[in-house]
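Sequence in, structure out.
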Amino acid sequence: MIRGNKGEWSEIYTLFKLLGDKELFLGDKDIEKLEGLVYPIIKVLRTENNRDFEYSIQDEIIVVAGNEQVLKFPIKEFKIKALFLLNAIKVNKERTFSVPEIEQFMHSINCFSLKAGSSGKTDITIVVHDQRTNQQPRLGFSIKSQLGSASTLLNAGKTTNFIFKIEGYLDNEEISSINSLVITRGGKYSADLRGRIKSILDKNCKLKFVRTERKIFSNNLILIDSRLPEILAQIVFEFYQSEFSHLTDIVKSISERNPLNYDIANEHKFYEYKIKRFLTDVALGMMPSKVWTGMYDATGGYLIVKQNGDVLCYHIYNRNEFEDYLLNNTKLDTASSTRHEFGEIYKKENELFFNLNLQIRFLK
């Protein structure tokens, strides 16, 4: 029996929904449909058990394995199953669950797992008809669902730690006192990161960005923009010392302070532009632990599964809408400080340092 969480079942829902609708609807920054902008779907591609299957949309859904037609299904069947699965996902309260009625239909269309065989950030591959160019590009999309818990855009790890040097003097007793500051959440203790930073600053010390913990991540950022490590260090620091978490609020605050001293006399949006580029590259392929070449893995963009069941497309061709969506619908989040080793003063070669971590999550 196949079991999965809401996000995983959302991938199967997306497959059914797209085959039933026969077209992709584009979304705006507020996750609403852009009127009059659609891509007719030619076929959906999926890899199962090392075999490639095509779900070709004609008068019926034709399943092709290799170059051989193997099955035919009415389009209406996919509409019905999509609606049934949507309701099953919504009402289920378990962390993982099965949907036997849907599993039976999945097997009938040669679909035996929740996730298609793919690498990197591509969850589904679609061939569409681009009416502007009269071409039929093959596009890889990453699926993000609002039906379950909020998904991450950039996962936390030691790979996403930023190292700050403490400029000023703290004795051992002060260090121990600061490192012991904790807060309670849901009956559990966790590091009081904002309290620790405030205490450091209250001791007439400063936190100066030195570098990222991992060189690969730093070089990936520099490839995107030479000053991006510094900008993200400011973003991270702003998050941990203020009440802001929404990226739009943080970027606005950083832009007003202009810590990198850009020439903003003519109101150039340096910080917003560079952060949008960063978010786009993360969304479509860049990972902190792997060397980034600039080649996108998710060549189409994102598919967003909304609470009402709509599936909206954010396509790299419509770059402005895609970038606005990413900036307007993400926030910084606090990961486990013990697991990723940040948020505590430590000494190295008689100097004091303090690490902060970057994790970016979708609002929903």
